[in-house]
Design goal:
It catalyses: [protein]-L-isoaspartate + S-adenosyl-L-methionine = [protein]-L-isoaspartate alpha-methyl ester + S-adenosyl-L-homocysteine. This is Protein-L-isoaspartate O-methyltransferase. Keywords: Methyltransferase, S-adenosyl-L-methionine, Transferase. The protein has 6 helices and 7 strands, in the order αβαβααββαβββα. The chain is globular. It has a domain at 1-93 and 105-114: Rossmann fold (3-Layer(aba) Sandwich). The relative contact order is 0.17. It has a 7-stranded mixed sheet. It has helices at residues 2-9, 28-37, 50-61, 66-71, 105-110, 155-159; strands spanning 18-22, 42-47, 74-78, 91-96, 111-122, 126-133, 139-147. It is of the alpha/beta class.
Length: 162
């Protein structure tokens, strides 16, 4: 799925562009985004599990993307990814690594006109949706394929109080 999402977003991941990775998990895809947008770009990863953010930072520090983390063009944050990360918006590319029941409005708001979001939608039956925001702000959505992802949820809902 990472390769598919990279391919779907590649036109929005050129040097100097901005990308948001919601549910950044291990940091693998976030690091790939950083390599594609380069030092003049900006990549933000958001996950609501602090331990995953810590692990992703360690993973990226051991990778070829380490310099982007060190220089600050790549950052990883603990937060509710459904709200995006407003500080560095708007984004040319947004990847969501968990299935939402509907497209979170804050993510649409943070998607740059001309930008693209890839997000799995659905509960039991899920589809990978490609969302393009036109220059006039209108949205075009198409289905890429059927998928199966974990739900996009809050930390409390995911961990059940643990």
């Amino acid at each position: 799925m990472h390769a598919t999402c990279l391919q779907l977003l590649e036109d929005k991941l050129h040097p100097g562009m901005r990308a948001l990775d919601v549910g950044s998990g291990t940091g693998y895809l976030t690091g790939c985004f950083a390599l594609m947008v380069g030092a003049e770009g900006r990549v933000v990863g958001v996950d609501h599990i602090p331990e995953l953010v810590d692990m992703s930072i360690k993973n990226i520090e051991k990778s070829v993307a380490a310099s982007f983390l060190k220089k600050g063009s790549l950052s990883l944050h603990v937060g509710d990814g459904r709200k995006g990360w407003q500080e560095f918006a708007p984004y040319d590319a947004i990847h969501v690594g968990a299935a939402a029941s509907e497209i979170p409005q804050p993510l649409l708001d943070q998607l740059k006109p001309g930008g693209r979001m890839v997000i799995p939608l659905g509960t039991y039956f899920q589809e990978l949706k490609v969302i393009d925001k036109n220059e006039d702000g209108s949205i075009k959505v198409h289905t890429e394929t059927s998928v199966r992802y974990v739900p996009l949820t809050s930390r409390v809902e995911q961990l059940g109080g643990f």
